[in-house]
């Protein structure tokens, strides 16, 4: 959320910390701050408010609460100035329980014009475009107190407002001119003739405010959050309003929003006449009360926090705490929908106190050893067997192009269903690794995966094994490598596996229903024979993102010349350091003797860390090598 520091300052008498300091405080106690920018004479922070706090913190009032709680500064809560009410009626009917609260008010003789400079500056600082006094007022109040609001041109409304379910086949035209087809599980705000707005998401074009508007109906509602989220997703429209409603705003905020909007319109249109607010609130929100023990909170956090300090922290969060012996009875503010269990209180106390103040502490050892998990044990045992045979484990996508179970809203066309097997992914994995075998320095590619598949109406764990012999060896193929792996697993588990090795264009694969195999194996007592030892000393290094080029060189030398001497001359032929940096890998792949001479064949892989190499680049290097070895009198084959 774009947050204006000058706007935040209006909630405090004393100066708040600098924008830079606020960003640090938010990061360590509440939110991540993604950016900071100067807009005019203001500093605007882009605060990343996550869903667990979005119901109260997607507004300057909510962010100001966090500033007060973290810094201890006293927060001012400006009260909306009361407006003079006249006997101007407004008709409101609510036909659904999915509307938890709804307030409407008729206002006559409003002046719709350009907004004053101060209002434009406030909105533009946080990325909002100024439209007119009425629309700007609704946006300003939403960004201030968090309640989405809307205004209809009252002279375009036929009869009274009705909050109801949409009718099958009914359509609405939104403010931006988009025609939306509605369904019966969607909520709308309507009049006697047509849909005026998609409830909780976007206003309609028909009753929009324009320069000719004289009379308006201002509204504020609260809707069941899953309904708003489902509708927003179905119609493909996400707005500032829907984002707030789907995160479960408190119905109590509705009245606050209407009061502040009325006061602001009265300020912008001094001659406006206000009717009484009609409030539909069939089931008032109930205050959550929790009983906690300060000692339990300290124990859970692993740091001793005094009861008085804990009460002070909770007070800064506007949580009233009343002592009850060695416990505290907490009264949670109605706008805080995230504090419902003991652990929520622990989190609030801990983050405001400061996690940086909590020293590292190992948890106590359990009194008894945990029960060994049979599925985990045998899966790890199979992994160990395959790794010992030189296989590498793969983690491939669970989402694929086709499957028995499809995703309603896939991220991509090739990830729209749950996989029904591991074999297809394993074959693609083999193909990609075989293509890069020269770069990896592999004569064989051997892979396996243990993962969940979804087939035949059930979910189960599967094992796939795949292999390909890259360097040709007589009698050695991918099928042999997979068959050998299966035999090793059978020997390790003491069972016979029923599976057929499937040859493919790249190597061979085999797949097993691992869940069924494990179900038939005996129970286990411990993990003692599994390899959970010291992590091997592995050095990781950056790899290139650019393609590689392979070149082979074979040459005859006298029998007295060794492999090392030949390679040393090849390196001297490459000569300059830049070219040597391009040599990603080399290997001797063939040696034979004939007529008093020895043939050495080297494979060299060239790759740049900064660019795509061309054939000309590598040919130039090879020419230098040829010149060097011919100068030694060796014959290039």
- Reading off the top of the CATH hierarchy, the class of the largest domain is best stated as Alpha Beta
CATH 2nd-level architecture of the largest domain: 3-Layer(bba) Sandwich
Number of strands: 30
Roughly what percent helix?
25-40%
Round the Cα radius of gyration to an integer and report it: 35 Å
| Helix count, DSSP H or I runs of 4 or more residues | 20
Mass-distribution shape: elongated
The biggest beta sheet is recorded as:
6 strands, mixed
Mean pLDDT: 93
CATH structural fold name of the largest domain: Phenylalanyl-tRNA Synthetase, Chain B, domain 3
Judged by helices, strands and strand pairing, the structural class is: alpha+beta
Unreliable stretches, pLDDT < 50, 5 or more residues? none
**N/C terminus separation:** 68 Å
| Number of spatially distinct domains | 5
């Amino acid at each position: 959320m774009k947050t204006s520091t000058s706007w935040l300052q209006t909630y405090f008498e004393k100066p708040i910390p600098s924008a830079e300091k606020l960003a640090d405080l938010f990061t360590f106690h509440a939110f991540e701050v993604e950016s900071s920018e100067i807009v005019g004479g203001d500093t605007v922070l882009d605060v990343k408010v996550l869903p667990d706090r979005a119901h109260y913190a997607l507004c300057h009032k909510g962010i100001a609460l966090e500033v007060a709680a973290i810094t201890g500064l006293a927060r001012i809560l400006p009260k909306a100035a009361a407006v003079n009410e006249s006997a101007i009626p407004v008709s409101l009917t609510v036909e659904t329980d999915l509307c938890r609260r709804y307030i409407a008010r008729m206002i006559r003789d409003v002046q719709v014009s350009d907004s004053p400079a101060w209002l434009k500056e406030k909105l533009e600082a946080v990325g909002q475009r100024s439209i007119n006094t009425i629309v700007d007022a609704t946006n300003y109040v939403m960004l201030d107190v968090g309640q989405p609001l809307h205004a209809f041109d009252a002279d375009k409304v036929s009869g009274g407002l009705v909050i109801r379910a949409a009718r099958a086949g009914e359509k609405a035209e939104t403010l931006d001119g988009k025609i939306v087809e509605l369904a019966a599980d969607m909520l709308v705000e309507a009049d006697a003739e047509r849909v005026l707005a998609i409830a909780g998401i976007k206003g309609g074009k028909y009753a929009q405010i324009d320069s000719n508007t004289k009379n308006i109906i201002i509204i504020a509602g609260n809707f069941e959050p899953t309904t708003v989220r489902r509708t927003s997703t179905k119609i493909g429209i996400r707005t500032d309003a829907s984002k707030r409603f789907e995160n479960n705003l408190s119905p109590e905020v509705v009245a606050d929003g209407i009061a502040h909007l009325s006061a602001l319109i009265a300020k912008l249109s001094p001659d406006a006449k206000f009717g009484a607010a009609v409030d539909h609130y069939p089931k008032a929100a109930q205050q959550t009360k929790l009983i906690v023990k300060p000692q339990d909170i300290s124990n859970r956090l692993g740091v001793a926090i005094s009861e008085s300090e804990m009460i002070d922290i909770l007070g800064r969060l506007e949580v009233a705490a009343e002592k009850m012996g060695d416990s505290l009875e907490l009264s949670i503010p109605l706008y805080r929908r995230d504090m419902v269990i003991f652990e929520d209180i622990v989190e609030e106390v801990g983050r405001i106190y400061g996690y940086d103040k909590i020293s590292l502490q190992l948890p106590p050892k359990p009194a008894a050893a945990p029960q060994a998990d049979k599925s985990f044990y045998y899966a790890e045992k199979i992994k160990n067997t395959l790794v010992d045979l030189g296989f590498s484990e793969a983690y491939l996508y669970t989402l694929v192009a086709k499957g028995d179970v499809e995703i309603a809203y896939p991220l991509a066309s090739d990830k729209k269903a749950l996989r029904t097997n591991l074999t297809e992914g394993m074959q693609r994995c083999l193909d990609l690794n075989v293509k890069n075998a020269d770069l990896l320095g592999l004569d064989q590619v051997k892979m396996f995966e243990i993962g969940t598949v979804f087939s035949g109406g059930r979910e189960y764990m599967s094992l796939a094994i795949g292999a390909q012999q890259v360097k040709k060896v007589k009698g050695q193929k991918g099928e042999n490598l997979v068959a050998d792996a299966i035999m090793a697993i059978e020997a390790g588990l003491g069972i016979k596996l029923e599976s057929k090795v499937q040859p493919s264009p790249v190597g061979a694969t085999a797949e097993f229903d691992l869940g069924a195999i494990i179900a038939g194996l005996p129970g286990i007592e411990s993990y003692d024979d599994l390899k959970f030892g010291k992590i091997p000393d592995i050095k990781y290094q950056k790899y290139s993102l650019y393609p590689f080029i392979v070149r082979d060189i074979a040459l005859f030398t006298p029998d007295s010349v060794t492999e090392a001497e030949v390679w040393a001359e090849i390196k001297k032929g490459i000569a300059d350091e830049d070219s040597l940096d391009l040599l990603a890998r080399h290997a001797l792949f063939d040696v034979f003797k004939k007529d008093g001479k020895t043939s050495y064949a080297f494979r060299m892989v060239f790759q740049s860390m900064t660019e795509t190499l061309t054939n000309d680049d590598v040919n130039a290097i090879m020419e230098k090598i040829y010149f060097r070895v011919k100068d030694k009198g060796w014959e290039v084959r």
